[in-house]
Amino acid sequence: MPASNRRRAKSLSNGRPPLSQKTSTSLSSKATRTLIRTHHNLEKAHARALNTGDSSTAETLSAEIQERGGLRLYQRASTIGQSASRGGDSSKILVQWLEELLPSSPAPAPSAPSPLALQSSRNSAPALSLLDVGCLNPENHCARTKLFDHGRGVVRIDLRSAHPLIQQQDFMSRPLPSGDAERFDVLSLSLVLNYVPDPVGRGEMLQRTREFLRVPGDGGDVRGSDGKGGTGMAQKRARVLPCLFLVLPAPCVTNSRYLTEERLEEMMGELGFALVKRKLSAKLVYFLWRYDGSNTTREEKEVFPKKEIRPGRTRNNFCIVLR
Ligand SMILES: C[S@@+](CC[C@H](N)C(=O)[O-])C[C@H]1O[C@@H](n2cnc3c(N)ncnc32)[C@H](O)[C@@H]1O
Where do the annotations place S-adenosyl-L-methionine binding (predicted)? Predict the structure, then answer.
């Protein structure tokens, strides 16, 4: 392997879509990558300092993060990475997959009052609800498909909202649903898990996604005219929904000491997720996981500690821990 390729394989920041040199923004491709990498590294060091009770270092790092533009500049760099000229945004893959897996057009429901009302329709597929966690652009591909209930069924959140249609909210503090009407058919976690600075926090984020996914077979599936759920559409939906769309920089699974795709699949299985779709591009890895709702508590279940499974000097340290 040429030296330049080896160098590229090491860096998780290279997991962003390619950045071109010519854009209307003032951030070059290199500057954008450096900014993203530095932000992630500072966040990780900050989390480590907090974990070890080193509040003075944590404060210094926090100040440095702010001095360097903080989340605002990081989001700007990520938005540049989403532009069509730089590889496009990952929601395109989510929409492609759902349209392929659930081919019949759902009834358009722009003025539908609530997911519950949609569920009462028979013989037509209700539009899907979506929780888009870590949303930078409310006009991404999800906004342009009839798959989703654009009335009240699409909720977008981010740690820092860059748009009135995005709620400013930490997913880890989002109040738990009080009932199924507050759960979703689809949860998108695109390039968010790798933002979490520590392995335990990543495991907790994955576990938490289950709280926000609709319980399978709760009536959100389409029923056949016999009322027994026997239609082809109902079966197709049951094979896919509810689901989690997960996107990571490719090196998180292709070049990590601690995580491979196989190990991720084992972990997800442990949480009740089965792989439906997967795509590896030069920069990113995309997964669609169906949640079976079977595993809401993990007491006495298998734990996944930090364990080196693929040693090597050129590997990265991306890791997810399930406790
Ligand atoms: C790299 S951007 C990804 C944006 C978009 N989803 C994409 O695929 O390009 C990561 C975003 O996730 C957000 N984020 C990270 N942790 C989050 C959390 N716990 N709750 C909500 N948003 C979060 C960050 O604020 C940031 O805007």
Answer: 134, 158
Ligand 1 close to Cβ of residue 101 (< 6 A): no
Helix (H) or strand (E) holding 74: helix 70-82
DSSP string spanning 98-140? HHHHS-SPPPP-TT---HHHHHT--SSPPPBPEEEES-S-TTS
Beta bridge partners of 277: 288
Q: Does the annotation place 198 within a ligand binding site?
A: no
Distance 232 CA to ligand 1 centre (A): 36
Helix 55-67 crosses helix 29-51 at what angle (to 10 degrees)?
160
Work out the number of other CB atoms within 10 angstroms of the CB of residue 297. Answer: 6
Complex-level ipTM: 0.99
